[in-house]
Amino acid sequence: KAGVTQTPRYLIKTRGQQVTLSCSPISGHRSVSWYQQTPGQGLQFLFEYFSETQRNKGNFPGRFSGRQFSNSRSEMNVSTLELGDSALYLCASSTGLAGVTDTQYFGPGTRLTVL
Amino acid sequence: AQTVTQSQPEMSVQEAETVTLSCTYDTSESDYYLFWYKQPPSRQMILVIRQEAYKQQNATENRFSVNFQKAAKSFSLKISDSQLGDAAMYFCAYITTSGSRLTFGEGTQLTVNP
After folding, report:
1. I need a labelling partner for B19 at 20 to 30 A (CA). Which of A36, A67, B39, B108 fits?
2. Contact assessment for residue A72 and residue A25, using Cβ atoms and an 8 Å cutoff
């Protein structure tokens, strides 16, 4: 079974721009979660989607948003980029059965650099 | 709020020897999952081992095993017969059975010396 895929792998943007990152979960997985990883803050939860609905959201500003499609693929969008948004963005998928998120399997990440 | 603490920012081990990474967590929940993930230089987060809190038996995956002490809220990872490929950042993580967000520790950078 193919793993979690994320595109693009690397991205360079300038302040004020917006960016969209994509994540395709493992086949059969219905839950997709997003995390931000930075040297200073470590790994922080952004949000989780299950069956096209946001089920949980972390403590990030409204500039960070996401969505999930009927095929479980997910996108996250960051608008009005700031220097501090430079990070590795990790996507993880799980079966999400019965509304429970158990073992999450991660993609390779998207490295976003904001200049 | 749940917290996960890894008190060892760095550890090193000789190839073929055994090393133990420490993790403690704080929660008021009774049912949850605990994980160890490794993140090599490629930055891919790889699942190493998982433990369900309701299981008293410690999880084992080949050379990797855990020492789960629920009352002490401790969850250490033992790597036996260390290999060069084990070198990575190791993260301890927690999730409740009703939640959807993983809470990670700060990570332990493991170096394996030949």
Report:
1. A36
2. yes
In single-letter form, the type of residue at position A15 comes to R
Task: Give the type of residue at A115.
Answer: L
CB-nearest partner of A48 from B97, B101, B104: B101
CB within 8 Å of B109: residues ≥ 6 apart: B9, B10, B11, B88, B89, B90
Of the candidates A90, A101, A108, the beta carbon closest to that of B100 is on A101
Asked if pLDDT for residue A79 goes beyond 90, the answer is: yes
**Shortest Cα distance, chain B CAs vs residue A16, angstroms:** 27
- Chain A residues with CB under 8 Å of B102 CB are 33, 35, 43, 45, 92, 104
pLDDT computed for residue B112 by the predictor = 97
Rounded Cα–Cα distance for residues A23 and A72 (Å): 9
Residue B101 banded pLDDT, cuts 50, 70, 90? confident
Per-residue model confidence (pLDDT) at position A72: 95
Per-residue pLDDT band for B96 (boundaries 50, 70, 90) equals: confident
Would you call A48 and B100 a contact, using CB atoms and an 8 Å cutoff? Answer: yes
Return d(Cα B5, Cα B107) in angstroms, integer: 9
